[in-house]
Structures are given as structure tokens and as C-alpha cells.
Amino acid sequence: MTVTTPDIASVPAAPRARGAIAEFVRQQPLGTVSFFIIVAMMFAGLFSELVAPYDPLAIDFASILGPPSWDHWCGTDAYGRDICSRLIYGSRTALVIGFTSSFIGSSIGAILGIASAYFGGRIDSWIQRVMDVLLAFPIIVLALVVVAAFGKLLVGGIDLNLIIAIAIPILPRVARVVRAAALSVRVMPYVDAARAAGYSHTRIIFRHMAPNVVAPYLIMLTAFIAQAILAEASLSFLGLGVQEPTAAWGLMLSGNAADFYRQAPWLILFPGVAISLAVFAFNLFGDSLRDFLDPRFKV
After folding, report:
1. pLDDT, tens digit, for every residue of 28-76?
2. What is the C-alpha separation between 166 and 227, in angstroms, rounded?
3. Is residue 35 assigned to a domain?
4. To 10 degrees, what angle do helices 160-186 and 139-150 make?
5. In a domain, 126, yes or no
6. Collapsing DSSP states into helix, strand and coil, what is residue 158?
7. Under a CB-based contact definition with an 8 Å cutoff, are residues 247 and 52 in contact?
8. pLDDT category, 161, cuts 50, 70, 90?
9. 101 CB contacts (<8 Å, ≥6 apart)?
10. What is the DSSP letter of 68?
11. Rounded CA gap, 106 and 247, in Å?
């Protein structure tokens, strides 16, 4: 009688994925809640036209500074615009700018971090000195400098310079973390084998080293979306980010909201809650993802 053992490679991918998701839900309840909040934000941003009860730009002078009611769940602003609708459309602005900035900054930072670890020597030293200069400035200060220096470049209603301004401070922070992970990958036998086989530096970096630093990259990408959303809200509040009449959470906290916050506290209450909820959700999800992917935290 022949005993056969199942081949691990033949196990379907779907059950593995379902098992990983179930394990994540069991180990990281806060991360799971944060994930559902992020999904709700993405749904609201993608389907704003269907979800929002009113046009976010519609002015109604008969409803100026109206308190929360059945008609306007979050009240109205100084122009009679529905705050709930503007919050829903503002989630699209926050997610587009936040995700794009984080993706650009994290991706370029990851490439620089891997290249710095792979080449070493003088190239590593030069890259790290540039990263040191960028790290010397807080995210919001460096973003302020870039926005003030380059002005606005609107494409499809989105300011590309604002995205770049937020992405630049993210770049060195990701580069440092990825470089630390890539240093341990560089000494692996398969990297030496790839060099001995005559593969190009580009192939070794992208085909052999990059896949092995995906975990820290994904964690940093998720965590810095929260920082990017907060930076966008701060710049919009200061008048250097998104401009009227575009719906943006930071913009809703400035202008008339600062003038009428005593008379109509809902002008700052609901946008502030939206920003806080988004930042907490992405930060908690990033921390949970780190704990779940790091083998040191396995139970």
C-alpha cells in the first residue's frame, strides 16, 4: 500500500487567503474595525454622487447655518450647503490625494532604499545624506515649502504640486525602513547567485530583492496615507491646499467655520471628526498589519 502525501503547492489559494483573513480578524480586532471604516470611506468616495443627499456645491440662502436636522443630518454652512454631502465628497478628495501621495512617496522611497542597500559604499552614503537633509524637516513644514515654491498645477481638479509636496517628506522615511530590511536581503545566497549568473543590477533589485521587502513597504504605505490625509487637511486649512468650491475636510475647517464656530459648532465638529476617524483608522490598520506580518508578534 502506497501512502501519498499532499503537495503543498497544490493547495488552492482561495482557502489560504480565507484562512489568513480569518486569522487577521481573530488576532487584530481593532485592525478589522479600522479596515471596515476605510472601506466605508472608499465606498463614499467612489459613489459620492449616489450616496450624498445633496449637491455639495448647491447654495441655499434659506438654510444658512442650519443646525443638524432630518433634512440636513450634519447641518449647513454659511452658504447653506449641506455639510453631510460635502463630507462625503471630501472623502474622495482626501483619499485621492492621500493614497496618491503615499503611493508615490513610498514607492520612490522603497526603490531608493533597496538601491542604497544593494550598491552600498559611496552610492549608499550619498543617498543617505540626501535622506538626512529631507528628514531634518517635519512633514508639514517641507510640504509648505514645496507648495509655496511651486504654486498650483491643476489636472482634473487635483493639484499635482500638492501631491508632490506631500509625497516628498514621505520618501526618506520609507527609504530608511526599506533599506534596513534590504540590507539583510542583500547577503542572501540567491542574490549572490543572481550576481554570479550575470544578471543586471536592475533585474536583481526588482526581481530578487524588491519582493522580499514588500511587507515593510505595505505597512509604510498604509501608515503614511493617514499622514498624507492630515497634511492635505492642514495645507487646505492654511489656504495652500484644495481651494473653494471643492469639498475638502481641511477647507471646511477654515474660512467661515472659524468665524461662526461659536454660533454653529457643527461647522468644525463634523469635519474634525471625519479627519480624526480617517487618521485613526489608517494608523490602527497599519499597526495591525505590521503586527500580523511580523513573525516576532506571532502567537
Report:
1. 888 889 999 999 999 988 898 888 888 888 888 878 888 888 888 888 8
2. 9
3. no
4. 130
5. yes
6. strand
7. no
8. confident
9. 163, 164, 166, 167, 170, 224, 228, 231, 232
10. S
11. 26
The vertex-158 CA angle with 155 and 161, nearest 5°, equals: 85
Range of weakest confidence among 20-29, 76-85, 203-212, 264-273: 20-29
Residue 143 has pLDDT above 50, yes or no: yes
pLDDT score of 6: 43
The secondary structure of residue 261, as a DSSP letter, is T
For the chain, percent helix, then strand, then coil, each to nearest 5?
A: 75, 0, 25
Higher-pLDDT residue of 20 and 278 is 278
- Percent pLDDT > 70 in the chain is 89
Residue 105 structural domain: 90-297
Q: How far apart are CA 75 and CA 61, in angstroms?
A: 13
Determine the angle formed by the axes of helices 121-135 and 160-186, rounding to 10 degrees: 140
CA-closest candidate to residue 243, choices 169, 161, 167, 137 = 161
Determine, yes or no, domain membership for 209: yes
Sole residue written with cell 483608522: 281
What nine digits make up the cell of 101? 501621495
pLDDT tens, residue by residue, 4-14? 444 434 445 45
Phi, psi of 158 (to 5 degrees): -110, 135
Nearest to 287 by CA among 208, 220, 192, 238: 220
Residue 299 reports pLDDT greater than 70: no
In a domain, residue 96? The reply is yes
Q: In the chain, how many domains are there?
A: 1
Rounded Cα–Cα distance for residues 211 and 65 (Å): 53
Residue 127 belongs to a domain with what CATH number? 1.10.3720.10
Q: Residue 56: which residues within 8 A CB-CB, separation 6 or more?
A: 81, 82, 85, 86, 88, 89, 247
Q: Which triple of cell numbers denotes residue 226?
A: 493617514
